[in-house]
């Protein structure tokens, strides 16, 4: 839930004593004037830039406490600016404000760890003020934390659980009430279809009707040469399907990011995700599947969580029953471990109706 107005005011009073600086980047002079006046009334110092290039020039002179930027600007777009700032100033919190309805653009800035995305025109100043104060507060309390997806729409504590008070329910409720927007966002967040590391190539293919809530797939290469992935059926989550899919993505990335130096177990991963689902109101049990391919041992392990699958290798089939769904105790399911993939293999999902999914893993040395 959003902080109450009194909570926001109390936080703002504490933070504003330091006269923090906000950089406002927008090509619309009227918008800049209105928002700048509002921020100054809240006792912030404000610097303005009319495009991304000017913002980068100002950043070389002084790094503000927060940047608020438009997405659609001439000379250098907001997406380009977000990407550049993410590389050059990874600790600088940013809020994107835009009138765009293109979910592909929204997805791109989310991948760069944007804390908040607000739509124009800004009609609810309490949401705007809350986004600013929350971003500044978190930046002060965790100055060394680099942006990542898990901190974008869900605030996770050190145990990987979701803090109810800091969840951005406003965004999730907006998505819940706008099916087309939700569907477009989940489609836009899908990763590249082909990825390669060392002598291995992984490719996935999804066929599904455009009008359905999608199957959501994501993956990550681990430092020890393994390939971790998951699949979630967002159409199974009812009204909270999109929120659950976003939460799974957040927890998946957070789990892997915080365990870079140790062995990531499938049941530990599923347990972390189930804890997140159990402590938030915007998610519910959902059909899913988790897997880790070990390119050193040439094996793959699958943990079903409501989705039935089939591993095809060297002319053989290994059926994997769907088991208990994610959020209802899927850690009780049997992990099918050490399935061979010396040359290649395909993970195919069945019982998806008119949809289909296939993950192909190939050893390019053969």
Automatic annotation (TrEMBL):
Gene3D superfamilies referenced in this protein's UniProt entry, alphabetically: 3.40.50.2300, PPM-type phosphatase domain
Response regulatory domain location: 21-135
InterPro entries in alphabetical order: CheY-like_superfamily, PPM-type-like_dom_sf, Sig_transdc_resp-reg_receiver, ST_Response_Regulator
Residue numbers of 4-aspartylphosphate PTMs: 70
Keywords: Phosphoprotein
Domain of life, per lineage: Bacteria
Name of the protein in question: Response regulator
Species this chain originates from: Vibrio rumoiensis
């Amino acid at each position: 839930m959003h902080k109450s107005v009194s909570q926001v005011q109390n936080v703002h009073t504490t933070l504003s004593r330091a006269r923090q600086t906000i950089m406002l980047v927008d090509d619309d002079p009227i918008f800049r004037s209105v928002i700048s006046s509002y921020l100054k009334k809240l006792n912030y110092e404000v610097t303005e830039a009319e495009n991304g290039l000017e913002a980068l020039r100002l950043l070389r002179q002084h790094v503000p406490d927060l940047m608020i930027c438009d997405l659609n600007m001439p000379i250098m777009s907001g997406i380009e600016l977000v990407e550049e700032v993410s590389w050059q100033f990874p600790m600088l919190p940013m809020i994107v404000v835009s009138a765009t309805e293109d979910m592909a653009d929204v997805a791109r800035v989310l991948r760069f760890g944007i804390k908040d995305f607000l739509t124009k025109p800004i009609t609810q100043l309490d949401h705007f003020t809350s986004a600013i104060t929350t971003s500044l507060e978190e930046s002060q309390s965790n100055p060394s934390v680099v942006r990542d997806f898990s901190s974008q729409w869900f605030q996770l504590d050190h145990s990987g659980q979701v803090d109810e008070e800091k969840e951005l329910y406003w965004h999730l409720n907006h998505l819940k009430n706008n099916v087309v927007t939700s569907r477009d966002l989940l489609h836009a967040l899908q990763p590249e279809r082909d990825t390669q590391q060392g002598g291995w190539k992984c490719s996935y293919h999804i066929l599904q009707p455009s009008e359905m809530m999608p199957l959501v797939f994501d993956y990550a290469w681990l430092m020890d040469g393994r390939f971790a992935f998951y699949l979630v059926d967002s159409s199974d989550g009812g009204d909270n399907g999109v929120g659950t899919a976003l939460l799974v993505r957040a927890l998946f990335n957070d789990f892997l990011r915080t365990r870079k130096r140790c062995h990531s177990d499938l049941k530990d991963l599923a347990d972390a995700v189930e804890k997140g689902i159990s402590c938030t109101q915007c998610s519910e049990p959902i059909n899913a599947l988790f897997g880790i391919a070990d390119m050193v041992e040439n094996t793959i392990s699958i943990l079903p969580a409501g989705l039935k699958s089939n591993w095809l290798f060297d002319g053989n089939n290994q059926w994997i029953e769907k088991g208990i769904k994610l959020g209802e105790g899927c850690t009780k399911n049997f992990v099918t471990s050490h399935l061979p993939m010396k040359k290649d293999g395909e993970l195919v999902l069945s019982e998806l109706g008119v949809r289909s999914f296939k993950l192909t893993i190939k050893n390019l040395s053969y």
